[in-house]
Amino acid sequence: EVSTEDPETAFCTLANREDLNPEESSIYHCLYQFTRNEKLTETNKLLCDVCTQRHYGPKNNIKSENKYVYTNAKKQMLISLAPPILTLHLKRFQQAGFNLRKVNRHIKFPEVIDLAPFCIAKCKNVAEGNTKVLYSLYGVVEHSGTMRSGHYTAYAKMRSLNNHLSDLVLRGQIPQALETELVKGQWFHISDTHVQAVSASKVLSSQAYLLFYERLL
Description:
Largest sheet: 7 strands, antiparallel
Oligomer: single chain
CATH topology of the domain at 79-215: Cathepsin B, Chain A
Helix content: 10-25%
CATH architecture of the domain at 79-215: Alpha-Beta Complex
Strand content: 25-35%
Structural class: alpha+beta
Shape: globular
């Protein structure tokens, strides 16, 4: 999909990214790096249909690929529609020559995360004037071991029944009371058939592989 946007606002976000100052080895830093502004130059230049037609005329007059005009451009990956359920998959492998090795580095992640610095200014399902897009953590998948062998375990939060989430999924309605309802709850660690109650600090210190959040605001 190609859209024409004002260059001054095309890369604007709901909240100022520069105020974020994310800590290294944190999920905020990962998101900041993934959504950073990139310059497309030299061999990465963008094929520009407008420039081509301006230079060579209508498309049907172009018979050679050499006549296409490429131009410098900027690229940025941002969220245009905030999902009801946010799943973050952390890359836990690294190429080392011809081999893959597991990345065991701990990535800090919060119980409540704000996606506003990573959403476009005109995010489709965020009310005008809102500068926060909050999500509450409810599940974590952790992997222990190596690339060749290991074990998956999970952390899940048991909380009161959330009848509002279906309203959010089906109708886009977000009651204000939702925030306090979803943050409360008891965490459990699940490993095969063994289930044990754990503290939130235990969950936040885990070596996350998958993170599951649900939207608050």
